[in-house]
Write a structure and sequence with these properties.
heterodimer; A: about 475 residues; mainly alpha; 3 domains; globular; B: about 80 residues; Non-ribosomal Peptide Synthetase Peptidyl Carrier Protein, Chain A; 4 helices; about 60% helix
Chain lengths: ~475, ~80
């Protein structure tokens, strides 16, 4: 099933209606478990294609129960390694010997996100941080939650339980309106905005040629770098809007995954605004434990900041590698790691050189702030080259532009992004006061007109013009 | 150990970690209100608290703390065990 699609919304509506029969925890959990399984069966009915996914789930559940009963470090370590190995094997990572791959097609959609939830349960069971022992139905309800099955958001178990069975979210008139608006806006982003941006991006890639004049070449290269982050944002945040809105109709509350990422003034800040739940997961289970253990081992105030840089690098390298199974994604990981590592070193050096107060004052300077924003965006766009292109394309770009034009393109993106994003943010702030479409304080007729317009465009394009919403990019991870 | 005593020790720890003698640990104090309290500084606070109170925190506990009040209550619960 494609998310978002009218089919998905119809499915969720049916689930919401059945859920509404009773608010009793047992009823809610039973309906949600049945809905999750029904949702997965829309991808395949073949038991063989479902078996590897089921095996990972069974291994995870057995691991959780083992950790609840037997909290021994060696068993925990073996279990984590077994889960990681099973995941990498089933996801066909390139470092796994190809001879070990399963010789048939099977379901991998949503596997990464389910894996994050399973690992969270295992670790928290070991560290006695789960609110209660995990039953099999609670496990299925949580790990396979159909509203966030495909690409998150990644929710922690305790937070999921709160609205799943303990205290379902309020579904009054304002929250229904808000959820509906969120679905429409998200659907619009995925079905209309992201395909248009992808078309524009493809046109700029096609326009890059040696025959083009120097200025055109650099401008098109800059647009190639700059458009893709916007496309990815429209696609992924649109999906997130739809599932958060949909979940609300089931009286479930999902966590936010985006918070205006392009206003970030540093690469480190970007990751607190982009794919927030993945960043939080990695901060909880990779960054913090690893850095704490290194700080305990090397207890020197002079070394500690450098340990921080190293662990930042490792964490974001893992984010890059998680995105895909090939060498291109290792390069993406290195670039992301380099981005946050260099960012942290710069912060440390500036704080040391200027002192905390003067550095804070510098960060507040509008020109410095705009340029920081532009640099952050440009580094994201540059890193994402390894996300969307092929090695052949990358080689072609490098030969076509050469080092000087690549550097000039990067600088152009920094400056243009600094101007456009800064003014864009000012306009957004102004609009929030004049015509606050995203606020409950705005007149209802204005919001209704806005959403109706978007809905008409969505229906016109997806139904009348027969151009259904594309798959979301993160579905592949 | 009383909550007051925990806050007193937390005040000493925060002043030491952030090199700021004006800091006072209170239940509503958050990372956003303290200059330099980022994810790295957060772990320095946690490590110092672990040493001072002779306790340890789980990964989930470290990341879920929203303010100093939650940290103090967590310490109180752990010390009481």
């Amino acid at each position: 099933m494609i998310v978002p699609s009218f089919e998905f919304l119809a499915f969720a509506t049916a689930v919401a209606l059945v859920l509404g029969i009773s608010a009793k925890p047992l009823w809610r959990r039973s309906v949600l478990v049945a809905a999750n399984l029904g949702f997965i069966l829309t991808f395949t009915h073949d038991p063989l294609q479902l078996a590897p996914f089921a095996m990972l789930l069974v291994l995870g559940f057995a691991g959780v129960k083992l950790m609840e009963a037997y909290k021994r470090q060696p068993a925990f370590a073996v279990l984590v390694v077994a889960l990681l190995s099973a995941f990498c094997w089933l996801k066909n990572y390139s470092f796994v010997p190809h001879g070990l791959f399963l010789p048939f097609a099977y379901l991998t959609v949503g596997m990464s996100y389910v894996f994050f939830r399973v690992l969270h349960l295992v670790i928290d069971a070991y560290q006695e941080s789960l609110p209660a022992p995990v039953g099999v139905f609670a496990y299925i309800s949580y790990t396979l939650n159909f509203t966030s099955f495909l690409a998150g958001p990644i929710q922690f178990y305790k937070d999921y339980l709160r609205t799943e069975s303990q205290q379902p979210a309020v579904l009054d008139e304002p929250s229904v309106g808000r959820a509906l608006e969120r679905i429409i806006v998200g659907f619009f982003k995925v079905a209309i905005v992201s395909p248009l941006l992808l078309l524009a991006h493809a046109a700029c890639v096609a326009a890059l040629s040696t025959d083009a004049p120097f200025a055109d070449r650099v401008l098109h290269a800059a647009l190639v770098l700059a458009i893709f982050p916007f496309y990815l944002y429209a696609n992924f945040s649109g999906y997130t809007d739809v599932v958060i809105g949909t979940a609300r109709f089931l009286r479930l509350e999902l966590p936010e995954n985006f918070n205006h990422p392009f206003v970030s003034k540093s690469f480190i800040e970007l990751w607190t605004r982009w794919h927030i739940t993945l960043s939080l997961w990695l901060r909880t289970y990779v960054y913090s434990p690893l850095l704490l253990s290194l700080m305990r081992r090397f207890p020197s105030p002079r070394v500690e900041p450098w340990l921080g840089v190293l662990v930042y690098f490792i964490t974001f390298f893992l984010i890059g590698v998680w995105h895909g199974q090939t060498a291109m994604f290792i390069a993406l990981g290195l670039l992301l790691g380099l981005g946050v590592g260099a960012n942290k070193i710069f912060q440390l050096s500036m704080t040391k050189a200027l002192g905390r107060a003067r550095y804070r004052s510098l960060c507040g300077n509008p020109v410095y702030s705009a340029l920081s924003c532009g640099l952050t965006f440009a580094w994201l766009g540059f890193s994402l080259l390894w996300f969307w292109s092929t090695p052949g394309q990358l080689g072609g770009f490098a030969r076509l532009l050469g080092p000087a034009e690549i550097a000039l393109t990067f600088l152009l993106v920094v400056v243009l992004a600094a101007i456009v994003l800064t003014f864009g943010e000012k306009i957004r702030e102004r609009l929030r006061v004049v015509a606050p479409l995203d606020s409950l304080r705005s007149p209802p007729y204005l919001r209704a007109a806005w959403c109706t317009t978007l809905a008409v465009i969505i229906v016109s394009v997806t139904v009348v013009l027969n151009a259904p919403a594309p798959h979301i990019v993160y579905r592949a991870f | 150990m009383t909550l007051d005593a925990i806050y007193q020790r937390l005040t000493t720890i925060l002043r030491d970690v952030f090199d700021d003698d004006t800091l006072v640990a209170g239940p509503d104090l958050t990372a956003d209100q303290v200059d330099g309290w980022d994810s790295f500084a957060h772990l320095r606070v946690i490590l110092t608290v672990e040493k001072a109170f002779n306790t340890t925190f789980s990964a989930a506990q470290i990341s879920s703390l929203k303010n100093v009040g939650e940290l103090a209550e967590l310490i109180e619960a752990k010390v009481a065990k």
